[in-house]
Amino acid sequence: MEEKQDTTAQLQQQVIGIGTILQLEKQSRHAASEAEHGFVVVNETFRLINYRQAVLCRRRPSGALTVKAVSQVDTPEKNAPFIVWLQRLLKKILKTHNPAEPFTVSQEEIPTAFHKGWEEWSAPYGLWCPLQSGDTLLGGIWFSRETPWEPPEIALLNQLADAYGHDWLALRQRPGRLRKVSGNLVSGWPLKLFFIALFSALLALPVPLTVMAPAQVIPIDPVVITSPLNGVIKQFHIQPNQEVTKGQLLFSLDDTDLRNRHAVAVKALAVIKAELKRTTQKSLITVKGSGDADLLRARVKSKEAEVRFAADELARIQVHAERDGIAVFGDVNDWIGKPVVTGEKVMTLADPGRTEIEIWVPVDNAVNLKQDAQVRMFLNIDPTHVLRAKIRQTSYEPLVSPENVLAFPVKAAFEPKTSSARVGLRGTAKIYGEKTRLYYYLLRRPMAAARKMLDW
After folding, report:
1. Predicted pLDDT at 304
2. Number of domains comprising the chain
3. Whole-number pLDDT of residue 150
4. 139 and 59 in contact (C-beta within 8 Å)?
5. List of the chain residues with pLDDT < 70
6. pLDDT tens digits for range 112-142
7. 87-91: long-range contacts, CB 8 A cutoff, minimum separation 24
8. Which of the two ends of the chain, N or C, has the fewest CB atoms closer than 10 A to its terminal CB?
9. Predicted local distance difference test score (pLDDT) of residue 218
10. Is residue 202 part of a domain?
């Protein structure tokens, strides 16, 4: 009886799988554009096989791959770090694998130079499914997920990819306005001259001069909380990145030394007061004690000042928030028991609603950065999402960046329609400079490198 139920369940699963494949093929055939077809390929295929991410790649005549669609992303940004990394990775691994056959890839099988990007952007197990029509390789689909790929799953995806490839080719071969004309007009030197002129015209196109640099989201006008006096941090009363209110206790210094100094000063003051009292009573009898009484009164004032100073320092060992905000500092365990000096920075209080981008442009890659120049930031945690900003402050003097590189610090304010990001997020910023010609944009870095090598 149980075997019959298991057989029935397997048949039902097979029927559901076949029905899903037929529905996906129908959606692919009825796609009205390449964009709609790409959406079906990278998103709707999840109904058949589970995966974390799918990327549709188109193969150019030169053999290079271009990302056309990414799952859960409306329009992939071609210059996003993840897109650039994936195109380079696929170009590398397709040299050692047959691009016309499906194959799996893990981190151990790729070059070491790609490991950091794999850990940051990819799931542990990757799968390449080619898209082809007949003998023509159109591109492929890159899948990634947390569990290994099973042979039945690969077979299903390869079968579905065959239908996707035929539909994609049909969309790309729709009739256009160009017609092929035979004869000498499109062959020989006239055609070559035409392409030379076209290439020259393309090189003269105006394009913005861009530069990419590491960036971080920082608060605007943060309040720096410093140590009020020399001592050792005893206890933190908050956690990193915790929201605090004005007057809330942040941290305390060790009060052992200050408390002892205050107690000693109080005892010394009591002793001198007692001696002053005895001397004053003695001066009532003899004239000789009046001079000693004046000296003791001066010492009493000095000790009272010491007591007040010790009490004042003892009252400053507890540090409170000067305003509302988020407390930004490192691990609590790194601070407990650490000696600090007066004025040493311990944390900052940041307004989470007022943030901006700090960019460190390396000196070797710097361009003319103008006020209000466009900036796009790609976060490491979400490389397909773009944060738009404009430069509000630049520096003419290079400084040493946190990565120990000589660079120009640049600050950019988020555009009104762009929501500000959380303080501390890091990524890569792309800065758009002045307009220049395409040939200069392409040859700027090679010319700079050649100049250093040849010592022009």
Report:
1. 77
2. 4
3. 92
4. yes
5. 1-15, 17, 174-189, 281-294, 420, 441, 444-445, 447-449, 451-452, 454-456
6. 889 999 988 889 999 999 998 877 889 999 9
7. 87/57, 88/114, 89/114, 89/117, 89/118, 90/57, 90/65, 90/128, 90/140, 90/142, 91/64, 91/65
8. N
9. 87
10. no
- pLDDT given at position 142: 94
Give the per-residue pLDDT at 373: 87
CA distance 65 to 63: 7
48 and 107: one domain? yes
CATH number at residue 374: 2.40.30.170
Return the CATH number at 335: 2.40.50.100
Q: What is the pTM of this model?
A: 0.46
DSSP letter for 333, please.
G
Give the separation between CA 264 and CA 272, rounded to whole angstroms. Answer: 12
Q: Tokens 């959380």 belong to which residue? A: 422
Quote the strand ranges of 22-85, DSSP E. Answer: 53-59, 65-70
Q: Is 418 exposed, middle or buried (0-12, 13-18, 19+ CB in 10 A)?
A: middle
Beta strand ranges found along 308-371 (DSSP E): 318-320, 325-328, 339-340, 345-350, 355-362
pLDDT of residue 279: 73
Q: Which of 370, 364, 355, 88 is nearest to 215 (CA)?
A: 355
Assess whether 126 and 274 both reside in one domain.
no
Residue 63 lies in a domain: yes
Residue 284 belongs to what domain range? 255-316
Q: Which residues contact 412 (CB under 8 A, 6 or more apart)?
A: 356, 357, 359, 375, 377, 389, 390, 391, 392, 429
37: part of which helix (H) or strand (E)? helix 34-43
What does the pLDDT read at residue 32? 87
The DSSP letter of residue 341 is: -
Of 254, 251, 250, 240, nearest to 331 by C-alpha is 240
User: What DSSP assignment string belongs to 365-427?
Assistant: G-----TT-EEEEEETTEEEEEEEEEEEEE-SS-EE-TTS-EEEEEEEEEPTTSPPPPTT-EE
Same domain, yes or no, for 343 and 369? no
- Tell me how far apart the alpha carbons of residues 415 and 189 are, in angstroms, rounded to a whole number: 51
The b-or-e profile of 273-312 (16+ CB within 10 A means b, else e) is: beebeebeeebeeeeebeebbeebeebeeebeebbeebee
- Give the model confidence (pLDDT) of 44-96 as tens digits: 998 888 999 999 999 988 888 999 999 988 888 888 889 999 999 999 998 88
CA–CA dist 383, 224 (Å, integer): 31
Alpha carbon distances (Å) from 390 to 201, 222, 321, 354, 397: 31, 20, 32, 15, 20
